[in-house]
Amino acid sequence: MSKDATTTPHVLFASAELAPMVSVGGLGLAASGLVKELTDQGSNLTVVLPDYGPSIDGFTEVDAWSLPVPPWCGPTLARRGAGPGLPDVILVSAPGIERPHPYNDPSSGIAWPDNTERFFAFSAGVAALCGSPDDGGVEPDVLHLNDWHSSATVGFLADPPPTVLTVHTLGYQGVTDAFWMSRVPHRSWLFSWYDVANPLAAAIRTADRVIAVSPNYAREILTAEAGMGMDHELGAKGTALVGIRNGIDTSIWNPATDPHLPTTYTARTVAKGKAAARDELLARFELDEDGASIIGVVSRLVDQKGIDLLMHTVPYLESMNARVVLLGSGLPDLTAWVRQIAADNPDRVAAQLDAFDEPLAHLIFAGSDLFCMPSRFEPCGLAQMQAMEYGTPTIATSVGGLVDTIVDADVDVAGGTGFLTTTNDLPGLVDAMHRALRAFGSTQRFNRIRRTGMKVDWSWTEPAARHADLYAEVLAEAQNS
Predict the structure, then answer these.
(1) Helix (H) or strand (E) run with residue 122 in it
(2) Pair 15, 31 in one domain
(3) Are 400 and 354 in a shared domain?
(4) One domain, residues 274 and 217
(5) Looking at residue 190, which CATH number applies to its domain?
(6) Position 80 in a domain
(7) Residue 480: exposed, middle, or buried by beta-carbon count in 10 A (0-12, 13-18, 19+)?
(8) Position 5 in a domain
(9) Contact partners, residue 183, CB within 8 Å, separation at least 6
(10) DSSP per-residue codes, 155-222
(11) In a domain, 255, yes or no
């Protein structure tokens, strides 16, 4: 490569989601926050997304051209333009990619049956964009892939640029029929995994750096318990596996400027500001002020998030003088079960389950006394940082990035920001809730915990700088090899 080492690398950043253009979970928020901060810090990024059609928000096209892809992909276009706050975005448009939801049928919550074909076609388009401008590419210096949706890109490149892969979760690997190994023209053996094809495994094996989204998750995924079959592959990466904590977009999640709150507040005025938000939250759910502590939850309703574990604490809430206020959507059976529990326990559980409501999410972060994340595994987690930014200490299981971001206030009296379970089960969660509520009963101590969490820099500033350093490192290594 001829690029001078002092020149800012041109990075092609491929993701299945990027808020606010398209986002259904943490991937979209994390990708957006990172891209925005990298751009603000001077990085040169081109973002590439699947063209989901009308479900893409805020895209303005300025150019389009055909991409050279395998015939099975069908006619594939690169649509270049801009998105909200993003000066350079390319949508890969191919037959079958366009859908009202990136992954699932909204009416059933069931994954689209052709997701493998859709995201392999997207990956073929990403690979084409790595080519020279004469061949329809943008010739990036570094390729940054995110999760399995873009991981198959490595099989469409004979000579890939220096590559960074972020594993936002090992819970989704894109495992599919071995037939799909015949659909990639280069190094198809990389996809072989226990007699099936695994695009995430291929990208892990190929990437010059694999980023886990928190330091603790980077350690966890080296174990058989948390590695989800990838522990040996990840262990083989050695120092090429790194953990970088995600951040949150503090231009959006900031109680000092939040337009969704009845009154803004800072760490100095947290008690007054949260009291106003609490009153509005109670009114929103038509709840009486009976002195019960409010434990907020903003979550997808999927097995990973441990919402079933939280619901099993409901019999204990009356003796704790606490209630749960929950915003979430997800698996139909789990959603129906939570809805029934809320109907049976109206004084203890209030829930909005029909659709995600971002203004309500802001209000829950601000108006709750405590926040709860009972996750079975949590690569990083964003909600706990959002909650603490709003002065709401978090009760959480001791997994993944929750361990990196929450300091147990009973372990570190001066630096505590929340409460972690000692065992990741129902007794452990109930114990952590009891400890948190005891702290809530001590105004002086609880206000200190609130303010400590609010003083932490949860932004993307430091994580983005570390990503930029990694881009420079992998490019320098390629130039010197």
Answers:
(1) helix 115-129
(2) yes
(3) yes
(4) no
(5) 3.40.50.2000
(6) yes
(7) exposed
(8) no
(9) 70, 72, 120
(10) GG-SSPPSEEEEES-TT----B-GGGGGG-SS-GGGGEETTEE-HHHHHHHH-SEEEESSHHHHHHTT
(11) no
Phi, psi of 56 (to 5 degrees): -85, 125
What tokens does 72 get? Answer: 């099975």
Helix runs in 221-296, H state only: 231-235, 270-284
User: What is the number of structural domains in the chain?
Assistant: 2
Residue 399 lies in a domain: yes
pLDDT digit string (tens) for the chain, length 481 residues: 445 555 799 999 999 999 999 998 889 999 999 999 999 999 999 999 999 998 899 999 999 999 999 999 999 999 999 999 888 999 999 999 999 999 999 888 889 999 999 999 999 999 999 999 999 999 999 999 999 999 999 999 999 999 999 999 999 999 999 999 999 999 999 999 999 999 999 999 999 999 999 999 999 999 999 999 999 999 999 999 999 999 999 999 999 999 999 999 999 999 999 999 999 999 999 999 999 999 999 999 999 999 999 999 999 999 999 999 999 988 889 999 999 999 999 999 999 998 889 999 999 999 999 999 999 999 999 999 999 999 999 999 999 999 999 999 999 999 999 999 999 999 999 999 999 999 999 999 999 999 999 999 999 999 999 999 999 999 999 999 8
Residues in the chain: 481
Sheet holding 349-352, edge to edge: 349-352, 322-330, 293-301, 370-373, 394-396, 418-420
- The residue segments making up the domain with residue 304 are 270-455
Residues 84, 201 within the same domain: yes
